[in-house]
Each structure stands twice: as structure tokens, then as C-alpha cells.
Amino acid sequence: MQKIIFLVLAFMPSSSAAIVKNPDTLVYAHMGEITTLDPIYSYDAITHGMIFNVYETLIGFKGDSLTVFEPLLAEKVPSVANRLISNDGLVYKFPVKKNVKFHNGKIMSAEDVKYSILRFMLIDPPGGPASLLLEPVFGISSTRDSSGKITVSKEEFENAVKTEGGMVVIKLKKPFAPFLSIMARWSYIINKEWCVSGGEWDGTFETLAKFNNRPKESSFLFKTMNGTGPFKFERWDLNSKQLLLGRFDGYWRKPAKLKRVIMKTVPEFGTRRLMLEAGDADIIDVPRPFEPQVKGLNGVRVFDNLPRLMTDPVFFFTFKVNPIANPDMGSGKLDGEGIPPDFFSDINARKAFCHAFDYEGFLNQALKGKAFAAKGSIPPGIFGYDPKIPSCKFDKQKATEYFMKAFNGHVWEKGFKFTLTYNTGGDVRQLACEVLKRNVESINPKFRIELRGVDWPIYLEKTQNKKMPLFTRGWTGDYPDAHNFIFPFYHSNGRYPIAQAYSNPEMDKMIELAVTETNTAKRRELYSKIQKKAFEETVQIYAVHPQGLAVMRDWVKGFLDNPVFMGIYFYPLSKR
Predict the structure, then answer these.
(1) What share of the chain has pLDDT > 90, as a percent?
(2) Residues 28-66: pLDDT tens digits?
(3) DSSP assignment letter at 166
(4) The domain spanning residue 290 has which CATH number?
(5) Got the DSSP string for 40-74?
(6) What's CA 37's distance to the chain center, in Å?
(7) Crossing angle, helix 110-122 and helix 131-138, to 10 degrees?
(8) Strands (DSSP E) found in 143-296
(9) Same domain assignment for residues 130 and 239
(10) How far is CA 194 from the centre of its chain?
């Protein structure tokens, strides 16, 4: 009798399998906000984690690999062996796949590919990802000079990207080691005819100035999409912060298993957790501190220790703060009630804060030990990572000594007050801020730090306008190479140095040399020198390189993770 009962129970469906909600629809509740639907404007993980499900690239990373490529919208992956890369490493040829349909039914052509690559580079909005391709193709990080004038010549424009029959040919300024990695993540292809009919750039040099450096809201693609990917855009409600994708049945591969995907911005973890428990969300974002609250939940599966191309959180000093109508500086003077704009231009102040952060305590308490202690900007597993470079250690005595030196002793004597900022919903970054605030204030009662969380769009705006004296953000790799963690952190034209008002010509030269160096050993040596220089100058404070955590209902099948995705790849997923 006992055996009979056992067999009956063994073949009964599990409770979670019996109550799958909306089996054709997947709901993803995430923290951040989608900022635009145009791939040339957005430069955040949530937005691009959505975009790569709609817009596809010429080549991609195969499965979960960071080194093996596969063809997507190109017929082949270029190499020297197949003669699609020139022997000097300057010319790359991409044969375009035939009979691929856009979501509006139009067939993709080589002209669409050429237009897409040029548009990605040359519209070049501030804070966008254009520099990723501008750097190897044109040898610049911006299309504009300090006065806003376009610096790209017509000859350079015409020679950079060409079509040869069904082939797209891209010519680089110099050999660029990670070029294929960049193309595998950022060569989004859009339909030229559709763009132009919507009032977008027509692809000619003569009309470029009209579209270069526009606000994102001016783009025809700000609120609509037309890609070749497995999912097509259906609706984006900015008020409810919800986006709906539908399956594209004309996809060049087999259609996706899911009929639709709903992406929702849900800032509060407690709300996301309740949605997951009730089955109202299939996948949710879970910051590491909240991991214990989801492990063991009935019907929930946790994918842990996932590799990530990530350095986060990082504290960024603004060397010259914008003082105009800026309450984050307090009085704006070193009088105990504020700080002057150049407060963090004093290296002693920077080093004091660097030694005041409890790195080990934060890793173990906030990240539950599921991270690597950061020595610099490059995470482990990426070419150029050097475990031997020096790093800042938690040492209150050293922090005190540096505070006493800052501004010739006036910091210690008078104290300071300013606001340390993190993004709303960034729970791990908030915890890091609390650790730093607590330790700094314990050193001298005259030291006061206010913490403030702000919504993501405002946070980005404040960053670019240099309004925050000290702020915490992070970096998720755009592609798996040291250059992607060196240029944005240390080059004067990089994303963070621009926001920090930091510049070092010596650093710039080393960075520019390293990315064109063909000798692997020499390239590795240059990256070690760059990171040692960054340590000496204490440009930023690096906390950890986190490992990934993906949490979903156990009825979600087919989950595929790759560190370069920046989000969830919906194509292989199903619910059953």
C-alpha cells in the first residue's frame, strides 16, 4: 500500500507546474527604467537588455562564450583565414544574410547595414554609446570639437563604411584588438527606408549636422522600433513604466516560444518579491542583499554565481563640481556647512575617503561574499586584469592622516557637509553609501554626509552636468576586453572622467597605445601601468566585482545567460 501511494504522488504534477499563469506571456519586473527605444541614445543595462531582443547584430557571442563568435545577420564571422579581415587588421568585410525580414516586412539589405553603422556613430548624442565604434573606425571618441562643430570630413565619411554588392566593408583607422567583440554587441541593424520616412537622417554627409547631437526625444525611434529580432515592439507606456513586446512570426530563425513579453519597472524589492510569489512576475531583479528572501521560495528557481562583466559599486569623485543652484555642496565653501567646488581635486581628500571604506565588511555583509574584491576597474576573467596591482585598504588611521593633510589642515579643522548620491532602487549602492558615510563621520564629528537617492533619468542628468560631488555608480562591460573598462574610467573622453571633470594626458596616451598594440604581452603590461597610475591618483574608489543572480519561477525554461547580454535573452525561453 505504501508503494502504491508513493507512485501516485510521484506522478502527480507539482503545484507550480499545475498553476502556470499566462503560459504564453512572460513578465519581467526589473529595477531600472527604460530610457529610449533608439539604440544610438541609450547606454544603460536595462534599456539595452531590452533592445537586443528586438534589434540584432551582424555577429554575436555563441551561447555563454565570451571568445567564440557566431554569425547572426552576417553570413560569416570575419577572420584573416577567410579573407574577410585584411592582413593589416584594418579592413573588415561582413557578407549580409539574405531574405531577413524587418518587423515591417521589408527585406534587410547591405545598405540598411551601412546606414545603421554610420547612424550609430555619427548622430552621436551626448552620453550615448557612439564612441564604441567611433574610436576604431574614425580614431575619435566624439564627432564634435569643443565648440560643437563636427570634425569628421566628407572624405572620412565616405571611406569608413561602404557596400560591395551584398557585402558591407568597414575600414579602421588603426588595428583595434576588440573590434569584433564590439560588433558582436553593438552593431544593431535598423531599416533605412523606415527611418527616413519617419523624418530621420537620410544617410548623407550634407544633412548630418541637422541630426548630430539631438535630444533623444527628437528621434523618430524614441518611442517606436523596427528590428529583425525574435520580438517586435508593441507598446511603451511611460507613465506606468511598462513595455510590451510581441513575438515576430516572420523571424529568420524559428519563431520564439513565447507570444509576448512584458517588462515592468518596479523599484521596490518587496513588491517584486510579492509579484514573484503570486506568479504575477516570472523573472525579477534581486539585489544580492535580498538573496536570502528568495532562496527556498516554493516554485522559485535561483541561478547563482553567474559570471558578470561588472565593477559595481564604484565611488566617483567630481574634481570640479558645478556650483550653479547646487544644494549638494551645502554652503559651497569649506566652512563646516559645505564644500568648495574643487574639494575632491585635493588628492588627500580622495585618499582619505578611499581608506575610510570597509571593503571586506561590505563584500561579506552586503554581497554575502558573492563577489570579488576589486583592485581596479577591470574584473577577473577579462584580459588585462592584474591581481598584483596595489589597491586601497580600509584603514581609519590612514584616513585620519589624509583628512588632516587635506586643504592644508582646514578640512580637519572646519569639517564639511555635502550630499552623496545613489540611484533609487540601487539597493547595493545605497548600502555602500551608508558604509562610507558611517565610517567617515566616525572619524571627526565635524564631517557630515547626507545621502540621497534620485530616480535614474535625473541621476544621469546630474552626473553629466557635474552636479554631484561624490556619487556611486558602476560599469557593466559593453564587450569583454580590458579597453572597455579602461577607456570609460580613465580616458579624458571616457564616460566617467567627463562626468568627474578628470583629465590626465599621460593616461590618455597609454590608453590609446594599449588598444592598438598587437603584442599581447606588451598590451597586458600597459594595462597594468594604467591601473597603477589610477591607484596613485585615487581617481575612483572600487568596491567589488559582483557575481550574477537570476531569479525566476521554476516554470520558466530555457534560460541562457551570457555576461554581455546586460539583461534577459527572451528568445529561448518558454513557460511550462
Answers:
(1) 88
(2) 999 989 999 999 998 888 999 999 999 999 999 999 998
(3) T
(4) 3.40.190.10
(5) TT--SHHHHHHHTTTS--SEEE-TT-SS-EEESSB
(6) 16
(7) 100
(8) 161-164, 167-171, 231-237, 242-247, 260-265, 283-284
(9) no
(10) 28
Residue 359 shares a structural domain with residue 416: yes
What's the pTM? 0.82
Q: Which residues contact 211 (CB under 8 A, 6 or more apart)?
A: 123, 200, 201
Tell me the torsion sign for CA atoms 463, 469, 475, 481.
Answer: positive
HEC assignment per residue over 412-457: HHHCEEEEEEEECCCHHHHHHHHHHHHHHHHHCCCEEEEEEEECHH
In this structure, what C-alpha cell is assigned to residue 196? Answer: 527616413
Interacting residues of 22 by C-beta distance below 8 A, sequence separation 6+: 575
CA dist 315 to 338, 430, 547, Å?
Answer: 19, 11, 19
pLDDT of the residue at 18: 52
pLDDT of residue 426: 84
In whole angstroms, how far apart are CA 302 and each of 160, 292, 558, 559, 560?
Answer: 46, 11, 14, 11, 13
Do residues 148 and 82 make contact, with C-beta atoms less than 8 angstroms apart? no
Q: How many alpha carbons fall within 13 Å on the CB side of residue 197? A: 7
Q: What is the mean pLDDT of residues 385-396?
A: 95
Last residue of a domain, one of 160, 183, 213: 213
* pLDDT of 16 over the 70 cut: no
Same domain, 270 and 399: no
Q: Tell me the C-alpha distance between 70 and 54, whole Å.
A: 18
- Residue 220 in any domain: the answer is no
Q: Is 301 contained in some domain?
A: yes
Q: Does the pLDDT value for residue 2 go beyond 60? A: no
Mean pLDDT of the chain: 94
Q: Could you give the number of structural domains in the chain?
A: 3
Per the CB < 8 A criterion, the answer to whether 57 and 189 are in contact is: yes
Q: What range does the domain containing 147 cover?
A: 55-213
